[in-house]
Specification:
Catalytic activity: (6R)-5,10-methenyltetrahydrofolate + H2O = (6R)-10-formyltetrahydrofolate + H(+); (6R)-5,10-methylene-5,6,7,8-tetrahydrofolate + NADP(+) = (6R)-5,10-methenyltetrahydrofolate + NADPH
Oligomer: single chain
Strand content: 15-25%
CATH class of the largest domain: Alpha Beta
Strand order of the largest sheet: 1-11-8-7-5-6
GO cellular component, one term: cytosol
Binding site for NADP(+): 165-167, 190, 231
CATH superfamily of the largest domain: NAD(P)-binding Rossmann-like Domain
Protein name: Bifunctional protein FolD
Structural class: alpha/beta
Largest sheet: 6 strands, parallel
Bound molecules: 5,10-Methenyltetrahydrofolate
Order of helices and strands: EHEHEHEHHHEHEHEEEEEH
GO molecular function: methenyltetrahydrofolate cyclohydrolase activity; methylenetetrahydrofolate dehydrogenase (NADP+) activity
Length: 294
C-alpha cells in the first residue's frame, strides 16, 4: 500500500510556523503583515478560493483586504489599483486572482506588481530569480509541492523526476525547484509523445496537466512518489459532483507515496501563500532578500 501524504496536516503545521513568524514581524513592523487580494468578476470558484485565502490570513494574525471589481473593469483601472497597493506601506503582499477576464492583459497586470510584494511569484523578476537560484518569492503551489515531497524524500540528487504540465504557475517553476535539488528533470505536456513510457521511468511524478485521471496505474513505477496537482470538478455516477485529480488514485497502490485530491496540494497552496506574505513583509524590512525559502 502506498502511503498517503497528508497535505491538510502539513498545511496546518506550516501555518503554525507562519503564525510564529508573524508575531515577530508584527513587532518589528509596528503593524501586522498585510495581504491585498484582488478579484475581478464573479467566477464562483475564484470567490471560494479568495474567501478561503482571506480567512486563513486572519487565522495566522495577518491583515487582509479584499478588492472586488466588476467583470467589466478597465485594464487601466486595475493597473491604477495595483499602483496604489504598490505604494501602500500597510500592504506587504498583493495577489491578483487568476484567471482575469479576456479583455485584460494578465501579463501586463502581473508585470505591474512590485516584485517584493508579488506573493504569487509570477512577476518576471521573480521568475528570473527562481531560474537562477537567487532567491525571490517562489510561486505558492510549486513551493507546496516541494514541501510535500520533502516529507518523503531527503536527497533528490540524481533522481528521475517527471513533471506533466508546462504552465508558468506550476509546471515550469516546479521543474526549476527540482533542478535546484539536482534531480534529473523531464518536463512533459499534453503533446508529449510516449508520455506513459516517460512517466514509467520516474522516481518522482508531479502531475499538473488538469486532465482528470490521466496518469494510470501502469504508468507508475513501483515505489515512485506522486504529487497530484490536478483538481477538476467532475460529475459523479450518483448525479453529484466531486473533485478529481490527474492521477487514477485507486490504481497507484504500488507507489511509495501519493497525495490525495482534495487534501493534498490545495491546502499547501494556501499555507504557502501565507508564508510568502510573511516573507514579503520581511523583505519590506530589508530581511531575507537573497534566501530561497525552500
Ligand atoms: N493569483 C492566483 N494565485 C493562485 O494561487 C490561484 C489563482 N490565482 N487562481 C486559481 C488557483 C487555484 N488555487 C487553489 C487554491 C487552493 C485550493 C484548495 O484549497 N483546495 C482544497 C479544497 C478544494 C475544494 O473543496 O474546492 C483541496 O484540494 O483540498 C485549490 C486551488 C489557487 N490558485
Amino acid at each position: 500500500m502506498s502511503a498517503l501524504i497528508d497535505g491538510k496536516a502539513l498545511a496546518r503545521s506550516v501555518s503554525e510556523q507562519t503564525a510564529e513568524t508573524v508575531r515577530g514581524l508584527t513587532e518589528r513592523l509596528g503593524q501586522a503583515p498585510g495581504l491585498a487580494v484582488v478579484l475581478v468578476g464573479n467566477d464562483p470558484a475564484s470567490e471560494v478560493y479568495v474567501g478561503r485565502k482571506v480567512r486563513e490570513c486572519r487565522k495566522v494574525g495577518m491583515r487582509s483586504t479584499e478588492h472586488r471589481l466588476p467583470a467589466a473593469t478597465d485594464e487601466a483601472d486595475l493597473l491604477a489599483l495595483i499602483e496604489d497597493l504598490n505604494s501602500d506601506p500597510t500592504v506587504h503582499g498583493i495577489l491578483v486572482q487568476l484567471p482575469l477576464p479576456d479583455h485584460i492583459d494578465a501579463g501586463l497586470v502581473l508585470d505591474a506588481i512590485t516584485p517584493d510584494k508579488d506573493v504569487d511569484g509570477f512577476h518576471p523578476v521573480n521568475v528570473g530569480r527562481l531560474s537562477t537560484g537567487t532567491g525571490g518569492l517562489v510561486p505558492c503551489t510549486p513551493l507546496g509541492v516541494m514541501m510535500l515531497l520533502d516529507t518523503v524524500i531527503s536527497d533528490y540528487r540524481g533522481l528521475d523526476a517527471v513533471v506533466i504540465g508546462k504552465s508558468n504557475i506550476v509546471g515550469k517553476p516546479v521543474a526549476m525547484l527540482l533542478l535546484e535539488r539536482e534531480a534529473t528533470v523531464t518536463v512533459t505536456h499534453i503533446e508529449t509523445r510516449g508520455l506513459s513510457e516517460i512517466v514509467r521511468k520516474a522516481d518522482i511524478v508531479v502531475a499538473a496537466a488538469g486532465a482528470p485521471g490521466l496518469v494510470k496505474g501502469f504508468w507508475v513505477k513501483e515505489g515512485a512518489v506522486i504529487i497530484d496537482v490536478g483538481i477538476t470538478r467532475v460529475a459523479l455516477p450518483d448525479g453529484t459532483t466531486g473533485l478529481m485529480g490527474d492521477v487514477a488514485f485507486d490504481e497507484v497502490q504500488h507507489a511509495r507515496a501519493v497525495t490525495p485530491v482534495p487534501g493534498g496540494v490545495g491546502p499547501m497552496t494556501i499555507a504557502c501563500l501565507l508564508s510568502n506574505t510573511a516573507k514579503a513583509a520581511a523583505l519590506s524590512l530589508g530581511e531575507a532578500r537573497h534566501r530561497l525559502s525552500v
